[in-house]
DNA sequence: ACCTGAACACCGTTCAAGT
DNA sequence: ACCTGAACACCGTTCAAGT
């Protein structure tokens, strides 16, 4: 099975990202990748070394999609913009949450560039020293946690269970917790898109207000 | 290979948690579990149905360790206490981050009880409606993100790489980002335990201040 | 009711061998 | 330098068969 063009690292990564975007992290296997590339079940090893490495390269690849513009507005606007862009990245590539949790030490040029951007924005805000690291990390964490909460259970054609059905299933477990049951029902009856959006903005506002409070305690040098 | 005592659901889950605690999520396989239980490679199927289900049951099992006491102090203290307890749970069972990200829809009595506790504390603080859900979720997200950032790369005996060596390895990638390099070095030279603690407390304070700011905008009814 | 053995369809990775 | 074939040591899951 000779393929039309010669393979290289870039084409392998591109095929990996396509597989990940369409079918998720589990779908990325050495053998499926070989099939997609019209090649042998283990082509990737020459080009990227290992599965773990390939996931890291694919992650770095999609991080390159981020614009990371500094608009010149307030640090609040810059940080909010960064968080919203990152959120969109995670929604375009839902496998990112799983990739980060199973391979926690991913790094690469685009990720490093993103980390630096976060630090720059937080630095402008007035953070220094370790506060700088922690402020940046809190933004990333916020988006990661938001995306995690939004990850749909992977049930491809499993008779798409409606929210109402889910509530029925857990109603027994919730018998002792009327407040929790009330919230489950409220969420089941709300429009998912609207709730997702508002939920993210709630978290973002809380985060920015919290950072602001921290800055107010340590006012900038005159 | 007859085993001394009869198996039941509880013993299977207990063995699973021990395997997870000692060797991580990857170590939990049907065959290893069978070996540990002095039984066949597929014993678990009769008792828990599937691997996915077993991970959920193990997660719920460890969530039962949480005390979830309401101290009667301020909502801030209660929420901080809950977050710190949850953090300790994640550090006792480092596989939890991966479990939540690979099986996002885990639920069970102990988890439901924890969710209810979060809602109760947030409700006392003055949150209502969807704000209640989002406030609770932000606490869980905060701890999850903190634990994620702390997950050590699983390199068992891989010549424990020192932080300084890591900095050397990425120094090339960081050439264009002096601020980022400076932060890497500062973190490499700091005591990990102290930094972890301070990092968590920073995030927690930011979160609580942010929630407080939200409450101030919507003062409680008189 | 509970457990075993064998099988199916997969994995990641290595390595000698090909071109 | 790049790719293939075959093999090794694993997976989760099913199912007929045992007790």
From TrEMBL, chains A, B:
Keyword terms: DNA-binding, Repressor, Transcription, Transcription regulation
Transmembrane segments: none
PROSITE patterns: HTH_TETR_2
Residue ranges for the DNA-binding region feature of this UniProt entry: 29-48
HTH tetR-type domain sequence ranges: 6-66
InterPro entries named among the record's database cross-references: Homeodomain-like_sf (IPR009057), HTH-type_TetR-like_transc_reg (IPR050109), HTH_TetR (IPR001647), Repressor_TetR_C (IPR004111), Tet_transcr_reg_TetR (IPR003012), Tet_transcr_reg_TetR-rel_C_sf (IPR036271)
Entry protein name: TetR/AcrR family transcriptional regulator C-terminal domain-containing protein
């Amino acid at each position: 099975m000779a393929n039309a063009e010669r393979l290289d690292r870039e084409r392998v990564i591109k095929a990996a990202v396509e597989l990940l975007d369409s079918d998720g992290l589990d779908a990325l296997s050495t053998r499926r990748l070989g099939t997609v590339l019209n090649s042998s079940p283990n082509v990737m090893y020459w080009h990227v070394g290992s599965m773990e490495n390939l996931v890291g390269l694919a992650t770095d690849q999609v991080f390159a999609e981020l614009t990371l513009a500094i608009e010149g507005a307030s640090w609040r606007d810059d940080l909010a913009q960064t968080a919203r862009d990152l959120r969109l990245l995670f929604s375009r590539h839902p496998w990112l949450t799983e990739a980060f949790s199973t391979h926690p030490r991913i790094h690469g040029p685009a990720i490093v560039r993103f980390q630096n951007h976060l630090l720059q924005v937080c630095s402008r805000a007035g953070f220094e020293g370790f506060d700088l690291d922690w402020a940046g990390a809190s933004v990333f964490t916020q988006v990661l946690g938001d995306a995690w909460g939004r990850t749909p259970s992977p049930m491809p054609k499993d008779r798409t269970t409606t929210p109402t059905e889910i509530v029925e299933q857990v109603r027994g477990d919730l018998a002792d917790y009327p407040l929790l049951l009330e919230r489950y029902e409220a969420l089941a009856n709300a429009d998912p898109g609207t709730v997702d959006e508002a939920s993210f903005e709630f978290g973002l506002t809380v985060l920015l207000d919290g950072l602001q409070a921290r800055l107010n305690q340590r006012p900038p040098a005159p």
